# Entry
Amino acid sequence: MWNKPELLNAMASALYAAALLLAAYATAHYVMRLPAFPLREVLIRGELAHVTVDQIEGIVKREVTGNFFTLDLAQARAAFEKLPWVRKADARRQWPDRLEVMLEEHVPLARWGGSALVNLQGEVFTAAYDSELPEFVGPQDSVKEIALRYAYFKHSLAAIGQVPVQVQVSPRRAWQIRLDTGLVLELGREHIESRLERFIAVYDRTIFPLQRKLNYVDLRYPNGFAVRIPELKLDPQPKRRSAKGARATG
# Structure
């Protein structure tokens, strides 16, 4: 090998190029850590209703460290996502000295488990919230399904002026809705939409004319439903209403 000058020249050139690259890398690494590239501004974007200025300032002081080049963006995103009302955070550098952070807040849809909340995506989160919300009750893995069906229930029941305040799913996936009037609708495990639609379709001809407070409607009958009227204490059986009219069938 030593008597092959072409090979020796090639090896020398490669070593020289590698040394230059290492020197350039070391120089860049050193320069990026100089105080000449400080991070001077953190710009927060997003429609924020619950995240406070104090919370944002706390995250910036504790978690946003380093200069423009050395700032860990993944760490910054994770830090902002620790805030109770932040669903998602995205962070990026803006030359020459700015960090831009886009925050997406949770939008509360319902309460879950007494202390937690459910957002529009059917995700459970924990945050303080004083306003009224409907309540979801069910197994942990049912929360997304309840959130999807709640939108349908709310829209459908609005046609008869009713508002669902609780949606409950049993471990066997039986559905029950409680309205703001106190009325409970028992939907069962099958044909949930069609049973509710049947009830809504005949509501004005069956339930509304009663002009009485009802506390329970069982919609699991194939061709009708049963109602329970609290003041009729002498009747051991609920009255079953035909889906085709207001005639009591039993």
User: Anything to note?
Assistant: Residues 5-32 form the longest helix (28 residues). The domain at 108-242 is CATH 3.40.50.11690 (Rossmann fold).
